[in-house]
Amino acid sequence: MGAARTLTRRRGAVPWVVLGLWLAALVLVGPLAGKFSDVQQNRAVDYLPDSADSTQVARIQDELPGGESTDLVLVYHRDGGLTSADRQTAADQVTEVGGAYDLSGTPRGIPSEDGSTLMYPVSSTQPGQDEEARNAFVDGVRDLAEGTGGLSVEVGGPGALNTDMSKVFETIDGTLLLATLGVVTVLLILIYRSPFLWLVPLAVAGVAAAMAMAAGYGLHELFDVTITGQSGGVMTILVLGAGTDYALLLISRYREELRRHERPYDAMRTALRGCGPAILASSGTVAAGLLCLLAADLNSSSGMGPVGMIGVLAALVAMTTLLPAVLVLLGRRIFWPMIPAFGSTPKNRRSLFGAMGTSATRRPAAVLAGGAVLLGTLALGVLNLPGSLKQEDSFTEKPESIAAMQTLAREYPERSSQPVTVIAPADKAGAVLDKARTTDGVAEAEAGRSGDGWTEISVFTTAAPESPGETKTIEALRHGLDDSYGAYVGGPSAQQIDLADSESRDRMVIVPLVLAAVFVILVFLLRSLVAPLMLLVAVVAVWGAALGIGGLVFGPVLDFGGTDPGLGLLSFVFLVALGVDYGIFLMHRMREESLNGADPQTAALTALRTTGGVIASAGVVLAATFAVLTTLPLVGLVELGFVIAVGVLLDTFLVRTYLVTTASVLLGRKVWWPGRLSRMPEPSPERPERQPEPV
Question: How many helices and strands in the chain, by DSSP H and E?
Fold first, then answer.
């Protein structure tokens, strides 16, 4: 008796120790979480690969006299034509800007052919690389350049676009966190129907998010990992979405075990043993898929890999240590008013997923074929995806910089207002300038700053920014200025070309890596080759169908002008890694039932009845958290959130419920080939089926 009491006391102390360790960790690293947003880099060049021409141009520009320049264009416009008073107002305001800031040269007004518009290119190296200083400069110029009496004034150019973009990213972290917490709160209340239980996983998810931000900051400081507003937002969603999924699975199993164990500690230990491997494998597939992004050439994608992995691991550790400790300390009463009493049996309610599974297994071949045809048909919508997203189409709500860009494109059709920047060795600057001026599609070229052995040359094309004509001219410049010149061609439009090229290369490299990594993890978990292949085929089909639905919505319904170049790769990584999660939950339980002697159909239906509700709840939560991205004012994030949310719902309610279940029934024991389960004899039909607790 004494030994038993001692053991009981020791077990009772474990949750308190775990809780104490988490509180200590939070106190130590919590302050670092607040610095996470400070290290985010959101310039276009921060997304580019190191090897790109445009990256080299940006780096050399930083070393030129005055450092990085902030380039603006002041656009004065009046319908029907500018008056002499308008031109004087423009000249006075530009002079005032020059008096307030140290400009690189005297701005020169360039009128449009019809006389309705006057643009003043303005450049300054005064703000340097400091983002706050650049934004303050742009805002200051906008305050000084104001239109009156029908004269419109717009401040555009690359510097203004960067400022508008950075202001969006400044609000993402807080907006995204609050919106995601709100969505998860509502869903957890609906799922648990308890006034208290929902608070526990939500609070633990919040702790995990803080720890992930602190770890992300450390990752940047120690290893110089690129962190962008996009990767920071995705990390927040992964922590809350994936963490809540793990909590749903664990709490469901814990509630089931509380009916079989008198002490909550023993029930939790059994629950962790039962679903722990599935949670571990689930997080492992997501982490492995994200780590494959390290092979990306694009800095933003390669940085998202470890940042996203940190979020998933933080969710895993919190939900398998802190959450169990808190639940054990709170005891059964946390489930009030539906407290699972020891020795009780759940109400024998009809399971929705059991009924769906039973209906599917009556004609499994027809259901499987119909589902495959449906996914294939939806995937055809990929052919309707709009082309690459241009900078002017990247906002859902048009900021001033985009309005200025559109005005310039309309009023100056013969000349681009956005220069292509060529960096040439100083001793070859003259030859490079001559070569640039004679290149087809070039309207004007002029030399700028020189220093440290390099000369900056601004090239203006005859085509509008990011148009096919300008792209052709940039390619001609790069081809004409071969290695013998030693020059680099960059600037905003060249950066977009390099982004698209890098994304194309990354897809070819990373897609096979992700599939291989996930397949290996599934083989080790399921002890099979057939089941992992089946799950991978399913999630790839879901990815294609989700992108196809995007093609039917983005252009025709939402009127988006293009798709982000990274949409295909990022949505693939997330949908494959996250989609396999639900396959793991289902197949792991199916394998457990098969090991207990159930025949293939009984094992499939029992697994579906047992995990169907949890998978559905988890899928809805994860889809809702990614859907929060669609509320942000950036088209690229809206598209990513939409495709992932749609894909998760397809995976949850179509693929897991019908296709994986029917495929498992049709394959029978072969689904576990070549593992020992594939060689087990069929059980006796008289074997009574264990009734799982409905979820």
Answer: 22, 8
**569: buried, middle or exposed (CB in 10 Å: 19+, 13-18, 0-12)?**
buried
Handedness of CA 568, 573, 578, 581 (dihedral sign): positive
pTM, to two decimals: 0.85
- pLDDT in the model for residue 4: 45
Q: What is the pLDDT of residue 38?
A: 83
Question: Quick check: 197 and 335 in contact, CB under 8 A?
Answer: yes
Return d(Cα 41, Cα 241) in angstroms, integer. 24
And the tokens for 471?
Answer: 């792209």
Query: What span, in angstroms and rounded, lies between the C-alpha atoms of 606 and 614?
Result: 13
Phi, then psi, of 224 in degrees rounded to 5: 55, 40
Q: 142: which strand partners?
A: none
Residue 5 has pLDDT above 60, yes or no: no
How far apart are the C-alpha atoms of 166 and 693, rounded to whole Å?
50
Bridge-based pairing of strands 152-156 and 442-451 is unpaired
Instruction: Look at 21-25, 201-205, 657-661 and tell me which has the smallest mean pLDDT.
Output: 657-661
The dihedral through the CA atoms of 635, 501, 392, 142 has a sign that is positive
Structural contact between residues 308 and 315, judged by C-beta atoms closer than 8 angstroms: no
The full DSSP string for 189-232 is HHHH--TTTTHHHHHHHHHHHHHHHHHHHHHHHHH-----HHHH
Length of the chain, in residues: 695
In whole angstroms, what is the distance from residue 490 CA to residue 58 CA?
7
Integer CA distances (angstroms), 342 to 12, 229, 339, 691, in order: 18, 48, 9, 17
SS3 of 583-594: the string is HHHHHHHHHHHH
